[in-house]
Amino acid sequence: MSGINSSTALWYTSRATGVVALLLLTAVMLLGLLVTRQGRLPGLPRFAVSGLHRNLSLLATAFVAVHVLSAVTDGYVNIPITATVIPLTSTYERLWLGLGAVSFDLMLAAVVTSLLRGHLSRKAWRAVHLTAYVSWPVAWVHSVFSSGDLQHGPLLYLAIVCALAVIAAAIWRVSAAGRDVPRAERVSLLMSAVHSKAQRHPPGGARRGERTLSQ
Amino acid sequence: MTAVTEDTKDAATELPRLLPPPENKRAHDWPAHADRHGRLPYRERPGTLIRDIEAAGLTGRGGAAFPVHRKLQAVLDAADKRRRTPTVIANGAESEPASDKDATLLWLSPHLVLDGLQLAAEAVGADTAILYTHVSREHDVGGRLREALQARQAAGADRVPVQLAQAPARFLSGQETALVNHLSGGPAIPTFMPPRITERGLRGVPTLVQNAETLAHLALIARKGPRWFRSVGTDAEPGSMLATIRRADGRPRISEIPLGIPLKDLTGEVSPDSAVLIGGYHGTWLSGGEARALTLDNRSLARAQARVGAGIVITLPPDRCGLVETARVVRYLALESAGQCGPCLNGLPRIAAALAEIAGGRARPQAVADVERWSGLVTGRGACHHPDGTTRFVRSALRTFAAEVDRHQRGRCSATATRPFLPVPEAAAHTEQDWI
Question: Which of A150, B77, B332, B349 has the fewest CB atoms nearer than 10 Å to its CB?
């Protein structure tokens, strides 16, 4: 068994960042599905969910970038840099890496259009953003079939859990759409919800020129 | 009746320019208007007025202070490029409850606004003009405008037909894209930009939306020229503006003031630890000490992170609590969210609830930090600036009333009167119909 040299380090980096990227992208997907239906996470205000969605997606992009670059730099298999964005141009694992490139392209499109959102029409931004529903499954297939790592043992279970979670969230999203509150009624509904939780306190003693607050 | 003050009337600067002399009770009539201002100075060619407006340095008086000539030029260019005839809209939907200047202007000088609408229509080559107004709180502005339009028709003054339209009683209904949405038959809710309405607005044509007061200034610049306009105000921010001023009695006074006027001329004597609200409910609370050193123009106010906005200057009476007032207004602003962007829909009610808790006394210790944090999370995250303006107002309140926040945490309040001071409309929206 050889030790870790510069090539195996790149190989391991690529594999590890790939697995982390899959987990992060799954989280991004789940949060995105939650955001579209005004979902909640315990301990987090609803409007912070979209912030988390955005920040995790940028983090995932960074991991995918390292994943891609380390795979290209690693000399063990020859992957041309063009194959990371142009599908089916790699001789090594031609189909599965091609899917990776497709997913990567769609991801970049979603990131770039979101960063430029102020300059785009709502329709154009949304159309590109909806391709996440293609990007994620393609990325999942790429993850599982590109190498043997995710085809057995704990990583296989992890991949299956990711897939089930996204499928469940997608089903929830579709069913929640039917129970949508009309736009004009949302605000007053939320207002009564948050205000009913406001606390009440006993009054204290007042000084001159001050009033004691009682509720 | 809203009082029109003569405090700042000055022969040398010829203010007021927009409002008629108060002694003439029929000044709003067409004959009186024609007598005072003369015929409409049509330029006979689109575009020519734009150079004068640029030289005058007129900016939008609806709050954003955007240079008027740039908007005119953008509409004219879009019309050329896309070969579509533009529409012009006078925006008199003064949704800000603390402001009363557009309603007063439309009531007292309707013809000046209508002149401006015609001249702006000519400048961009428009064939349709709309005057969009709110239901007035005290006058039959709509009735007066219908009369005015009839008189103009009889005199043959107008070249472009003018339609009247009424805004729903919502805070956001004067926002440009909400206005276009509403005039297109939809609810008065803001839409995402782009497309900019100067390129693709009402019925897809290039659309010019200008505040009613801005158009009145434009009508006077067309007659008297840029030099005359610049004879008051500052070099960077020339001209005059209508301000709504409220002091301790709470009554709104509309005064036409030169930009750059010292704030203390508007607030009267205020103690350093009192508070002044500049720019309305999307504006900024300042301490009396800060306000005394500033003038009413954006360059000066920027030092205190404030803006002129639509010219609202309110002095909080010493017997009222700034936190209680702010909490009440923020509750209103949260209820006026259009409910379409997540951060605004979910964030503003939470911020409002936490502020109510702080104002109520003995709030959770982290309530203030929560408000600060949530304010950061919703800023810049909407289709319109409603969350941004609201959090600017909230944060300035926490800054200006910091001592009062401490007092409230101990269960005390320095205010002796509990009667509400800042005007807040009662009716909140519950159904889609409330937005149409």
Answer: B77
